[in-house]
Amino acid sequence: MEDTVTGECEVLYDVSPLPAYVLQSQPELAPLWHLGGKEQVIDVVKSQNFSKCDQRLDFQFGIDGISDFKHVGENKAGNFLSRTAVTRSILTGSLNEYVIQSSVTTNKVILSPMFYNEQKGMIFSRLNLTLVSWSSASGSPPSVSDPRKEDDLTYSYESSENNVYSKELIEDSLLGKSLESGASASEESSESLRKAFRDAVGEAGTGPALVTLKEWIMSKKIRGEDAAELVSSLPRAALTPTPEYLNEFFKLATSPEVTKQSILNTSAILSFTNLVRMSQVDESTSHKYYPTHVFGRFSLKNNSAVQQEYIPWLERALESAVSQADS
């Protein structure tokens, strides 16, 4: 196992001498190989096995309806996705003492977005580090002021619950600005800008976006069909449906400003219950649709709000609607 930015996974090293004819035809592999005299040129190829990892840090979202894989971050996720990461390094010297002449890391992700044909898309990235000069060092390297200790190279995400609902974050960001922005533009351009910004907030899927949407509805900046359309996108757009996110959504869906608007009330209740089902009830969907391998399970066993708060409220609302013949 070897730790990298994306996790701690199995790696395979293939070490072999680099033939002279290869170096003659591709001198860029070891541009300064002659510095050490008659040193051996070594070809090292490292392949990463994403299917065998002790820790993964892949952020996956929106993967649903595919059953023939355990984790989208593996070497192959059914017929939908495959990935490889290969690093080729050229060394001069020996395996105990060497100079890295060049190192090229190639990452490929191949996607099959359409199951009914064989067309594929590919995401390709390459990082090339090549030695361009060499000189002897004198003295000791300068010390690092205020060093920070890291246990490994694995990337760490900020907690999904860290300050995402703080009022200061909303007010100091773009999401907190009024829909009446764009005064210097024409009225038509301003209206297009407002609609684009409004739709972007609805699709953002973050805690601050939800709080902002709630404030717009409470202050009647958006209402009716426009508000219902934005609320209906939340189950699909929510990135991290934590208990805090669900509680904020529940407050919105059960507020008088929503329940008194028929079309918005219907949209809010259906959207909220669908999100609860996806994130808290259906463990298979929750595992594949949301970034559980980064933030952990969203369907927490100790989250009693579903049974003790959400379902009782829905039960009372249904009984009230039946008694009033409100369909």
Detailed description of the structure:
- The protein is an alpha+beta fold and 327 residues long.
- It has two domains: 2-130, Lipovitellin-phosvitin complex, beta-sheet shell regions (Roll), CATH 2.30.230; 167-323, no CATH class.
- It has twelve helices and seven strands.
- It has helices at 20-25, 167-171, 187-204, 207-218, 224-232, 234-237, 243-253, 256-259, 262-281, 283-289, 292-295, 305-323; strands at residues 2-4, 7-17, 40-56, 76-77, 81-93, 98-111, 121-130.
- Strands 1, 2, 3, 4, 5, 6 and 7 form a seven-stranded antiparallel beta sheet that branches.
- Helix 3 (187-204) packs across helix 4 (207-218).
- It is elongated and about 95 Å long.
- The chain starts with a strand and ends with a helix.
- What's the average pLDDT? 81
Multimerization state: single chain
Overall shape: elongated
The number of helices is 12
* Overall number of strands: 7
Helix-and-strand structural type: alpha+beta
Tally of individual domains: 2
Order of helices and strands: EEHEEEEEHHHHHHHHHHH
Q: How much helicity do the residues have?
A: 25-40%
Largest sheet: 7 strands, antiparallel
Rg over alpha carbons: 27 Å
What portion of residues belong to β-strands? 15-25%
Low-confidence stretches: 162-180
Report how far the terminal alpha carbons are from each other.
59 Å
